[in-house]
Amino acid sequence: MSYNPFHKKKNFLSTKMMKFSSLLVLFFVFPIAFAQLRVGFYSQSCPQAETIVRNLVRQRFGVDQTVTAALLRMHFHDCFVRGCDASLLIDGTNSEKTAGPNGSVREFALIDQIKAQLEAACPSTVSCSDIITLATRDSVFLAGGPSYSIPTGRRDGLVSNNVDVALPGPTISVSGAVSLFTNKGMNVFDAVALIGAHTVGKGNCGLFSDRFTNFQGTGRPDPAMDPALVSSLRNTCANSATASLDQSTPLRFDNQFFKQLRKKRGVFQLDQRLATDRQTRGVVARYASNNAYFKRQFVRAIIKMGAVDVLTGRAGEIRRNCRRFN
Question: What is the pTM of this model?
Fold first, then answer.
């Protein structure tokens, strides 16, 4: 599947055939969702919608390239709770936004900015959930990741409760993490590809400091971590609250993350376990050896994730303000 939102495409017919075949496969995975989601959903109701999103994401990326990691996190944290319904964006003392795992989610102001321009151009037309999906797609491309078209037509949810937030943590077992993905209709290739978004991510030092200081009460670092990385993280975390999860190309969306896992240079415990667990080590090896293959699989996975429990048709609403229900 190939769709370059910033330049004209070559091989038009081949691209269209690839897009159709990929979406056909995904239709059989998420038949109800894909029956109503479609590429170019706003082509008649708001023709400039994707251009508005793209331009504002490009502007923000020009100021802060970590916006890619932020939007990927937002997209994942939204879709894995009540589905891709923008429930994460709601303000409130007990909304999803207040849950502990969402304390690291940011770029809400960018979503507000995009929504304001879309409301000015096409009132009550483009959902906040589609804004997250499109903005994430465009930011991945800007970071050197794959270009792809993604179906739109999601509607925004009417519920946002912090008690619903149950996301995989950095110390979860590989089998536990894979199970969470399979429960959402994805497979092990999807799970590892989506975790591969850590190639542009940062982690709070408090989430992995035991790995380079006192692993499981031993008084020594985790033996599964490269000694050079132990030293590097000690220095980094002594001067900063966060560290890059990809120590090689932290702002580029590529397969270097997987190459480092195979060298015992995974920062999160879960990430490192992917390289040795029997369920995932072969997938890590394939992604590490072929950047293009990883990117293709990532596209399939993020499109699947974008269809998880979506609201379409007359369900939900189109919020006028992403932070509040209508």
Answer: 0.89
Q: What is the pLDDT of residues 87-120, one digit of tens each?
A: 999 999 999 999 999 999 999 999 999 999 999 9
Instruction: Check whether 81 is labelled as a binding-site residue.
Output: yes
- Under a CB-based contact definition with an 8 Å cutoff, are residues 318 and 156 in contact? yes
The helix (run of H) or strand (run of E) holding residue 244 is strand 242-244
pLDDT tens, 48-81?
Answer: 999 999 999 999 999 999 999 999 999 999 999 9
On whether 246 is known to bind a ligand per the annotation, the reply is yes
Nearest to 7 by CA among 54, 64, 59, 61: 54
Q: What is the DSSP letter of 309?
A: T
Is residue 168 annotated as involved in ligand binding? Answer: yes
Annotated catalytic, 77? Answer: yes
Asked if residues 138 and 110 have their Cβ atoms less than 8 Å apart, the reply is no
Q: Distance between CA 218 and CA 237 in Å, rounded?
A: 20
What secondary structure letter does DSSP report for 311? B
CA 302 to CA 75: how far, in whole Å?
A: 9
Where do we find the tokens 């080590």? 281
CATH topology of domain 174-301: Peroxidase; domain 2 (1.10.420)
Kindly report, as residue ranges, where domains of CATH 1.10.420.10 are found in the chain: 174-301
Looking at domain 12-165, its CATH architecture is Orthogonal Bundle (1.10)
Question: 254 a known binding residue?
Answer: yes
| Total residue length of the chain | 326
b/e map 44-67, b = 16+ CB within 10 Å: eebeebbebbbebbbebbeeebbb
Annotated binding-site residue? 199 = yes
Single out the catalytic residue among 54, 60, 73, 77: 77
Integer Cα distance of 285 and 257 in angstroms: 11
